[in-house]
Amino acid sequence: MLKIYYIKYPKKTTIILILILIIAIILLGMLINHSISTFKTNDPIYKGDANSKKIAFACNVAWGNEYIPKMLEIFKSNNIRITFFFEGQWAEKNPEIVKQIAKDGHEIASHGYTHVKYTQWSKDKYSEDISKAGDVLFKITGKKPNLFAPPYGDFNDDVVKTAEDLGYKVILWSLDTIDWSNPGVNNIIDRVVKKAHNGAIVLMHPTKGTVEALPTMIKELESKGYEITNVSNVLK
C-alpha cells in the first residue's frame, strides 16, 4: 500500500521567531560596526553635538591683520565669542593682537607653527612644528591651547595621532565659507546660512568678504534659533 508522507511546516509563530532572531543578529552586527567606527582613534572632529542648537565659528589666522579689529568689533557688539586658530609664526609677529583676542574672551587654538601640508613632512618635523606653535601661544597668553587645526586641512592618521598624543583635539569643519577665494559676500552668507545645522563648525578667515558678511550671517543664524559660540562649546 502506497504511504503518503506529509511535510510538517513550522508553525507561524516559529517562523516569526526565526525572522526576529535573524533581524536581531543583523542589527547587532550593524551596531558593532557603528561602535567601532564611532570610537575609532585618529579621527579629526568635523562638527559638534547634533542635539544642541549651537554653531561654532572657527577663524584660521595665518596671514593679514587688517580685518581682525573689525571682526572683533562685530563679535563684541553681538556678544559672541568664537575660536581663533593661530599660526605660530603669525602669532609671534602679532602678539598684541593675540593678547587682545584672548582678553576679549575668544578661544585661542593652534594652527601649527608653519603653514605647510604636514603630510609632506616627516612625523618628527610636524610633531616639532605642533609643539612649537603651542609653546608660542602659551608664552603669549599664559595658556596652552588644546585644539589644533591642521594647515590646509591636510592630515593623515599619523598627523592626527601625533597631535592627540601632544594633547590636542584635531578640528576641521562642516561648513566652509571659502572666503579666501573671494566668492562674494552673498555667497559667503549663503554657504553658511542655507546649510546651517546643529553643532556645525564654520571655517572662516579674516578677509574683507567675511567681515562684510558677518553682520547678516549672525542675524540670520540667530533668527533661526542658533547660538553662535566657540568650538569647545559645540563639542560639549
TrEMBL record:
It holds the Pfam family Polysacc_deac_1. This is Polysaccharide deacetylase. GO terms for molecular function: hydrolase activity, acting on carbon-nitrogen (but not peptide) bonds; metal ion binding. The chain crosses the membrane at residues 12-32. InterPro entries: Glyco_hydro/deAcase_b/a-brl, NODB_dom, Polysacc_deacetylase_ArnD. GO terms for biological process: carbohydrate metabolic process. Residues 53-229 form the NodB homology domain. It comes from the Bacteria. One of its GO terms (cellular component) is membrane. The lineage of its organism: Bacteria, Bacillati, Bacillota, Clostridia, Thermoanaerobacterales. CDD domains: CE4_BsYlxY_like. Gene3D superfamilies: Glycoside hydrolase/deacetylase (3.20.20.370). Keywords: Hydrolase, Membrane, Metal-binding, Transmembrane, Transmembrane helix.
